[in-house]
Amino acid sequence: MNYRIILALGAFIPAVASGTAMAQEQPAETRDKTAAEFSVGVDYEEGSYGTDQDIRSWSVPATVKVQHDRLTFAASVPWRRIEAEGTGTIVTPDGPLGLPLFPGETQVDQRIVREGLGDVTLAAAYALPVKVVNLSVNGTVKLPTADEGLGTGETDYAVGADISKTIGAGITPFAGLTYTMPGSPEGYERNNGVAVNAGFAAQIGKRATGFVAYQDSASTSDGLPDGQRVATGVNVGLGGGLSLGAYGSAGLSAGAPDLTTGLRLGFLIP
What we know:
mainly beta, Porin, two-stranded antiparallel sheet, about 5% helix, about 55% strand, globular
């Protein structure tokens, strides 16, 4: 599976984003080489997330990823715009850790708009030297760097593992597990949560890879439902070190966004 498609998966399947591609075995001749990529994207998401609000979110994430031998490191920061209509205030601790929105206690019937820089996310993954399957472990930390109103102001952590196996003509089933440990801002109690995902990726021609995946994430906020969704997308190599990904997801439960869609453009750094 082309590892660049994981940049697209990361928009809405955090556990897949953090490690599935890193579990892919690299050819021996490239094992000691370093590859770096910069990507920029545009994401749109809407839903109520189990609250009484109609919430819409736009994000423009910028990501740098460096891969050397079995190790991969990534850093990402988004510009974000959040709009909500309904009662209550909104806090937006979502992102690569997949943490859900949760409502505030203030009952104000008004349209809320917030925009600015989001939290910085740092991630690392290690592909284990296993021959039978592709197996990786990973860790992620979300730093409280967001502009006021666009984050919880707390540091969140996540660890996980991913497994995959290429079979037949470029078909790669995969599955992953992520354990999230969110920080609790003043006035809110947040719980640790588990997310699981499964799906498959397939080579489409020489330069394109498609995927279909399902994710179930336990809510980390009391009173809000779990999030279940299905996603699909495609990543195409454009030549010259460029790649383009398009993707979308549909919510299957009240705690998931009703709709997510986005694009990613990647540039291999010489």
